[in-house]
Specification:
Blueprint: H1 9-12, E1 13-21, E2 25-32, E3 38-45, H2 58-70, E4 79-84, E5 88-94, H3 101-106, H4 113-127, E6 134-137, E7 143-146, H5 173-176, H6 184-199, H7 209-218, H8 225-228, H9 233-240, H10 253-258, H11 275-299, H12 302-398
Antiparallel strand pairs: 1-2, 2-3, 3-5, 4-5, 6-7
Binding site for ATP: 46
Enzyme class: transferase
Protein name: non-specific serine/threonine protein kinase
Length: 405
């Protein structure tokens, strides 16, 4: 079990206003008393009992802290300190302002594909460190920062990992279908982010979560002319090669970084539009993106979605455990049936051997009995002959004038 600083966080930091909240966490602005530097304090409510569904388990908190301590990258938020109280664990993180990526882009008056690729390049650089979930820090030179690692997992090569988590419209088919996961699931999400960034529309979003997940599982999307009429073929190719159902056929992180649409300097055959038309298209893009962000914030709260996905994940895990139990029972039944069949075969084999042995013994006994009868008959014949001889001798002895006396 990891040991965190048990001192009250307020001994070292002045806690300020709330910056955001989740299902079991609240993020507040804080200022370090010693240096005056500002940070973000993430208060995570601890789960009091293993059977409780309120709060975050110790294992999940330690996993998030471990990942944050492990990764170091300009596009990944930095963990400064960890404090613990009886009810909370407080992560003191680098302060990242500016809001979510789509909100930031929606406020811009225009967005070109070149700007989009610069943002995506930063996301890809961060994801290259095995992370997900993007926010942006607004400053004169905007920088993407990956900040939320609450549902991140470290997957070792060769390990099979299954789970159901994430915002529904961004999750990959293997998450929906409860199949083994890897970095390929993040690559799918990047494809969805790119689609939304360039069009202001979500490729799989349905009227309900069930319809959204069905669209994802079927990979049901298209490049609507209304949204992608002026989008370059390179950009659409980038999206197509990420939104692939088979994770093994999906572009890898290295593939995306080498894609000509991301490597801006080497891009070719991107259609140039006159500035007036380009400006009009960009304004339409940002307007649709703003509509999308408003709709996504109001119609599909990520906290509820994650909570429902967590519950669904537990149900799926229970079902998988039950199925494995049934499979084990079936394997045991088959093994028992095979053992019985083997014992029956051994019994039948031995019974056949005993039957053959008995037949051989009976045949030998019959032969011996016949031999005995023959010998007995022969002995009787010899005895009869001897008796006859004795009588003959006796008669000759008794006869008058016999020389035998």
């Amino acid at each position: 079990m990891a040991l965190f600083n048990q001192e009250d966080v307020e001994v070292h930091y002045h806690i300020g206003e709330e910056l955001g909240s989740g299902q079991f966490a609240i993020v507040r602005r804080c200022r370090e008393r010693a240096s005056g530097k500002e940070y973000a304090a993430k208060f995570i409510k601890k789960r009091r009992a293993a059977s409780s569904r309120r709060g975050v388990s110790r294992e999940e908190i330690e996993r998030e802290v471990s990942i944050l301590r492990h990764v170091r990258h300009p596009n990944i938020v930095t963990l400064h300190a960890v404090h613990e109280s009886p009810s909370d664990v407080v992560l003191v993180l680098e302060l990242v302002s500016g809001g979510e990526l789509f909100d930031f882009l929606a406020e811009k008056e225009s967005l070109t594909e070149e700007e989009a690729t610069r943002f995506l390049k930063q996301i890809l650089d961060g994801v290259h460190r095995r992370t997900s979930c993007c926010w942006i820090r607004a400053n004169p030179s905007p920088r993407i920062k990956l900040i939320d690692f609450g549902i991140a997992h470290r997957i070792s090569p060769g390990d099979e990992f299954k789970n159901i988590f994430g915002t529904p419209e961004f999750v990959a088919p293997e998450i929906v279908n409860y199949e083994p996961l890897g970095l390929e699931a993040d690559m799918w999400s990047i494809g969805v982010i790119t689609y939304i960034m360039l069009s202001g529309a979500s490729p799989f979003l349905g009227d309900s979560k069930q319809e959204t997940l069905a669209n994802i599982s079927a990979v049901s999307y298209e490049f609507d002319q209304e949204y992608f009429g002026s989008t370059s073929e390179l950009a659409k190719d980038f999206i197509r090669r990420l939104l692939v159902k088979d994770p093994k056929k999906r572009m890898t992180i290295d593939d995306t970084l080498q894609h000509p649409w991301i490597k801006v300097i080497k891009r070719r055959n991107v259609r140039q539009q006159d500035s007036a038309r380009c400006g009009e298209r960009q304004r339409l893009k940002t307007a649709r993106l703003k509509e999308y962000t408003i709709k996504s914030h109001s119609s599909m709260p990520p906290n509820n979605s994650y909570a429902q996905f967590q519950r669904l994940s537990r149900v799926m895990e229970d079902m998988a455990a039950a199925e494995e139990g049934l499979r084990a029972l079936g394997r045991g039944r088959r093994a028992c049936r095979d053992d019985v069949a083997a014992l029956l075969a051994i019994y039948e084999e031995k019974e056949g051997w005993y039957r053959d042995e008995r037949a051989r013994e009976e045949a030998e006994l019959g032969r011996l009995e016949n031999r005995y009868d023959a010998l007995a008959a022969q002995a009787a014949s010899h005895a009869s002959w001897v008796e006859e001889l004795v009588r003959s001798l006796h008669c000759e002895k008794e006869a008058p004038g016999s020389a035998i006396r």
